[in-house]
């Protein structure tokens, strides 16, 4: 029971996080590629309740930041006019869920701009980029993991079920893949691809590349499960009744791999999100100006950014709740599987 | 390489460290040669008298490849060679005018074809051997020898014929040109005089290119510069020591240079240079980006950062206008049709926000650019050239006139369509070696998005980029920077002549592809042969107008030269010509006996 409750809790937490990212357009105050060229490297604005004269306001507000005279990146608050934070404002156009044209934003200010997480070198809103960047990074992780599991499942089940030389060959190939330094492989693969690719193409290329690299481990796990499953009494019985290979696999064997696959998925998704971030960080991922979490961090390669603008690190923190969510989910899935096993075993011995 | 140089290259800006041209040393202001003794004619430099001794350390982004001035092609080698060698006539990096160097005086014949140079008497190479006219003859023989492949070789071909050199007496040489040369004696700057006694044998054996490797023993290498080779440690540093025979003295008659040692540390990249300078391991820093300059300026403890003003670097965007060959894909030809449309190029130029580039990329430490003459060049800019402010309105009008139209998509997005109704989409190549390039490209990408153009930015490693632009010509548009090695327009001949190898938008043409390119060729040749500055300036002004009209290169910005030095370094006077901080290295000194202990 406890296991189930933690599992649900993790699932809900993840669903909320993903929901925010999926509806990035609504939660983000601005268009992620819009450049506010007057405000490069603007630090996160502070939300105030009390103004410069000591008056309390019912609504949280921000002060605009203006450049200090003769400076490039030193800002100070312009306390002449408070800009209250308003909700459900109309602003930049976006497409909700990718197709619904929409202009409504959760929050914003009127006659000024609000940058809760600061801006980057071009004056683009970091918060908006972070939310939209999640769409790219998370989708890459999800789809990449999907591809990997599909390949792993097919290869693992063929190897485990048919055995013999097929098993030997496939598992040796899998070992080869495990031994490969995958990061360098990604570099090499990406280098073969055409130079000028559009954002969408680049995105699918990355997914294909990272998805195709990591199949070996799930394949081995699936193979193990299939090996033990095909010797189960009920499988043998089914075969005795004349069931075909296809029927056996589909009906009796593959369903048993589901918990292994789910756990693998929960582990692989954050891993692949990280892979996408690595590629984008190194400039091999989705091209600018499309945001992705890796792109957001790539400016940190410069020493001057590293020592000057602390808010540029914030995108690195965003992965913490996501990874925590996925890994928590993975471990509760694992526990659930263990619990199920114990139950199952009990049932068997009871017979 | 410097100057006109009808063929070879103008310099490419490679990473922050622009592939520079010769580091040269020069006297501070126009100094008249003075006889110090009958035996040795020292050049006396005015300016602050320093104190002798000490070691100056600076960092280089990578190792120099050679000490041989003839085959040096990379910026690091040139920087190092510049402090070890000297030339006959030298361009003062501060005044941008020529001054006597190894030649104490020169005369030009009335027809402008004959230059008679008189050498300083009694001066010696850094190994103590005397210099005379034979060394000069030998030097130019080697430079002109095609088998040596000297990088500066082409600059000695004036009017289609190689310069000839003959000796009048032990200290007088005559240079004969086939055609008058507009830049005059600037020609001699950067041709380092070689020690015949060390190199003649190698040259005769045909092994000249093996001379001057970094592994050369200190006593097997000599020059006429202020420093000579002492020690080279692979991957770590190059140590030079004071040349005791150097031919310059300060106002009090002390022989220069002041410093005992000059050390070049090899580091990985610009950030490493900054860290070394910040921690005090190096004494001077040169050619840093605006961001690093800001970081270093924030807490200047013990050092001072200097913005020397705009240099001769210029950044620009250009489109591929090369002849479509058989193999050119149809896609490419379709895009080239847009690029060839002058209104299209003018529209792009009108839409580019140059001020934003200066502000966001250079943090305001630079100047927007509308023409080819960078603001660091004091004499050659065309003041009448218009500096139109950014106008999307004008850009849209121009595009409309050029036959383009817009398609209004849902959700407020719109796309620029060409005459055939196809969307305008192209990519901008740029170098990944320097963070400024992709940044500039990203700004332009956004500028053009507002015109409905879909632009991809493709950062590429510098060498493969050059290969694409100059060899395979597989690119749409490209964002690059060049740095002129001299303020004289002849420095960039190779960029503007249609036959030039660096005529980027359509390099090495057999015949000028367009009428205006033919006119540029004519103007370039005329200005080279014109006798007076005024006449040359007039021709050059016209050339600038043509480029502003045709926009084969859309000029963007010119960054300031940003340098820094510890406060203990005396006589530190950065110039906007290369080498920015070492040009007066013989006069640099350390105050208060401060000595850098780090090696």
Word description of this protein:
The complex is a heterodimer of chains A (351) and B (599). Chain A is 59% helix and 13% strand. The relative contact order of chain A is 0.13. In chain A, helix 3 packs antiparallel against helix 4 (164-179), helix 3 packs across helix 10 and helix 4 (164-179) runs antiparallel to helix 7 (216-229). Chain A is elongated. Chain A contains 13 helices and 5 strands. Chain B contains 14 helices and 27 strands. In chain B, strands 1, 16, 17, 18, 19, 22, 23, 24 and 25 form a 9-stranded mixed sheet that branches. Chain B has a 4-stranded mixed sheet with strand order 3-15-13-12, covered by helices on one side. In chain B, strands 6-7-11-10 form a 4-stranded antiparallel sheet, with helices on one face. In chain B, helix 7 (342-351) runs antiparallel to helix 9 (392-401) and helix 13 runs antiparallel to helix 14. The longest helix of chain B has 18 residues, at 533-550. Chain A binds chain B through residues 33, 35, 37, 40, 72-73, 93, 95, 101, 121-123, 195-198, 283, 287-289, 301-305, 307-308, and chain B through 271, 274-275, 289-292, 294-295, 353, 356, 359-360, 363-364, 410-412, 427, 429, 432, 435, 438-439, 442-443, 445-446, 449, 456-460, 476.
What's the gist of this structure?
The complex is a heterodimer of chains A (351) and B (599). Chain A has 351 residues and is of the alpha+beta class. Chain A is built from 13 helices and 5 strands.
Share in helix of chain B: 10-25%
- Class by alpha and beta content of chain A: alpha+beta
Overall average residue pLDDT of chain A: 85
Please mark out the parts of chain B with pLDDT under 50 across 5 or more consecutive residues, or reply none: 1-38
So what's the oligomer here?
heterodimer
Strand content of chain B: 15-25%
Structural class of chain B: alpha+beta
Number of H/I helices of chain A? 13
- Tell me the β content of chain A: 5-15%
Largest sheet of chain B: 9 strands, mixed
Number of strands of chain A: 5
Q: What is the number of E strands of chain B?
A: 27
Give helix % range of chain A: 55-70%
Q: From N to C, what is the helix and strand string of chain A?
A: HHEEEEEHHHHHHHHHHH
Arithmetic mean of pLDDT of chain B = 85
Shape of chain A: elongated
* Count of alpha and pi helical runs of chain B: 14
Gyration radius of chain A (Cα, Å) is: 25 Å
Radius of gyration of chain B: 25 Å
């Amino acid at each position: 029971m406890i296991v189930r409750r933690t599992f649900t809790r993790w699932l809900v937490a993840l669903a909320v996080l993903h929901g925010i990212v999926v509806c990035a357009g609504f939660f983000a105050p601005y268009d992620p590629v819009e450049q506010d060229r007057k405000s490069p490297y603007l630090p996160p604005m502070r939300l105030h309740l009390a103004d410069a004269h000591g008056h309390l306001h019912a609504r949280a507000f921000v002060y605009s930041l203006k450049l200090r005279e003769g400076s490039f990146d030193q800002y100070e608050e312009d306390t002449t006019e408070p800009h209250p934070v308003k909700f459900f404002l109309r602003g930049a156009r976006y497409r909700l869920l990718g197709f619904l044209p929409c202009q409504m934003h959760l929050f914003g200010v009127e006659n000024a701009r609000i940058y809760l997480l600061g801006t980057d070198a071009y004056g683009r809103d970091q918060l908006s980029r972070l939310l939209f960047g999640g769409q790219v990074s998370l989708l890459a992780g999800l789809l990449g993991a999907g591809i990997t599991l599909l390949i792993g499942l097919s290869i693992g089940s063929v190897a485990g079920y048919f055995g013999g030389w097929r098993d030997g060959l496939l598992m040796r190939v899998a070992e080869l893949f495990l031994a490969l330094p995958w990061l360098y492989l990604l570099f090499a693969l990406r280098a073969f691809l055409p130079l000028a690719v559009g954002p969408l193409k680049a995105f699918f290329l990355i997914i294909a590349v990272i998805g195709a690299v990591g199949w070996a481990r799930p394949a081995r796990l699936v193979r193990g499960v299939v090996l033990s499953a095909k010797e189960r009494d009920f499988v043998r019985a089914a075969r005795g009744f004349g069931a075909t290979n296809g029927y056996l696999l589909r009906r009796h064997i593959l369903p048993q791999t589901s918990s292994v696959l789910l756990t693998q998925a929960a582990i692989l998704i954050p891993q692949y999100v990280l892979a996408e971030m690595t590629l984008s960080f190194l400039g091999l991922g989705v091209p600018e100006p499309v945001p992705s979490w890796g792109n957001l961090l790539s400016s940190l390669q410069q020493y001057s950014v590293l020592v000057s603008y602390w808010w540029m690190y914030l995108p690195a923190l965003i992965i913490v709740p996501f990874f925590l969510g996925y890994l928590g989910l993975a471990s509760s899935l694992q526990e659930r599987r263990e619990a199920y096993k114990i139950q199952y075993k009990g049932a068997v011995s009871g017979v | 390489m410097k100057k006109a140089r009808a063929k070879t290259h103008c310099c490419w800006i490679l990473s922050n460290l622009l592939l520079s041209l010769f580091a040269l040393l020069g006297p501070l202001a126009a100094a008249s040669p003075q006889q110090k003794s009958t035996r040795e004619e020292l050049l006396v430099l005015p300016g602050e008298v320093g104190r002798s001794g000490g070691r100056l350390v600076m960092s280089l982004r990578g190792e120099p490849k050679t000490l041989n001035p003839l085959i040096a092609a990379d910026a690091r080698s040139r920087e190092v060679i510049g402090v070890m060698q000297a030339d006959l006539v030298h361009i003062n990096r501060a005044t941008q005018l020529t001054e006597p160097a190894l030649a104490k005086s020169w005369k030009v014949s009335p027809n402008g074809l004959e230059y008679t140079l008189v050498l300083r008497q009694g001066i010696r190479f850094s190994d103590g051997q005397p210099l005379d006219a034979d060394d000069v003859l030998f030097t130019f023989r080697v430079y002109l020898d095609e088998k040596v492949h000297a990088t500066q070789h082409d600059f000695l071909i004036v009017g289609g014929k190689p310069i000839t050199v003959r000796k009048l007496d032990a200290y007088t040489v005559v240079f004969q040109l086939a055609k008058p040369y507009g830049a005059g004696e600037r020609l001699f700057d950067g041709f380092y005089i070689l020690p015949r006694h060390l190199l003649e044998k190698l040259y005769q054996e045909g092994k000249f290119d093996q001379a001057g490797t970094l592994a050369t023993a200190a006593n097997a290498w000599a020059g006429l510069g202020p420093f000579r080779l002492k020690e080279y440690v692979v991957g770590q540093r190059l140590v030079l020591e004071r040349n005791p025979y150097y031919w310059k003295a300060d106002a009090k008659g002390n022989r220069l240079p002041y410093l005992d040692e000059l050390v070049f540390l090899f580091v990985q990249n610009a950030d490493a240079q900054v860290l070394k300078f910040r921690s005090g391991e190096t004494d001077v820093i040169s050619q840093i980006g605006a961001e690093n300059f800001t970081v270093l300026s924030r807490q200047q403890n013990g050092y001072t950062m200097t913005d020397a003003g705009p240099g001769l670097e210029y950044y620009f965007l250009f489109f591929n206008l090369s002849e479509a060959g058989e193999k050119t894909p149809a896609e490419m030809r379709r895009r080239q049709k847009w690029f060839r449309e002058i209104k299209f190029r003018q529209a792009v130029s009108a839409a580019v926000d140059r001020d934003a580039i200066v502000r966001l990329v250079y943090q305001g430490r630079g100047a927007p650019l509308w023409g080819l003459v960078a603001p660091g060049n004091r004499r050659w800019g065309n003041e009448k050239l218009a500096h139109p402010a950014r106008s999307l309105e004008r850009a849209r009008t121009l595009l409309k006139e050029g036959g383009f139209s817009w398609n209004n998509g849902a959700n407020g997005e719109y796309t620029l369509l060409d005459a055939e109704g196809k969307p305008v989409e192209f990519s901008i190549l740029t170098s990944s070696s320097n963070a400024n390039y992709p940044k500039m490209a990203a700004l332009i990408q956004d500028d053009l998005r507002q015109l409905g153009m879909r632009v991809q930015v493709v950062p590429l490693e510098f060498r493969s980029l050059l290969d694409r632009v100059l060899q395979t010509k597989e690119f749409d548009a490209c964002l690059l920077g060049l740095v002129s090695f001299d303020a004289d327009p002849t420095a960039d001949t190779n960029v503007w002549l249609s036959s030039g190898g660096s005529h980027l938008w359509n390099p090495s043409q057999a015949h000028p592809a367009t009428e205006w390119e033919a006119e540029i060729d004519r103007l370039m040749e005329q200005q080279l042969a014109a006798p007076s500055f005024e006449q040359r300036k007039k021709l050059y002004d016209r050339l600038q107008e043509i480029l502003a009209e045709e926009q084969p290169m859309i000029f963007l910005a010119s960054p300031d030269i940003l340098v820094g030095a510890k406060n203990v370094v005396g006589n530190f006077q950065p110039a906007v010509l290369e080498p920015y901080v070492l040009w007066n290295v013989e006069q640099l000194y350390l105050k208060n006996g401060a000595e850098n202990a780090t090696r």
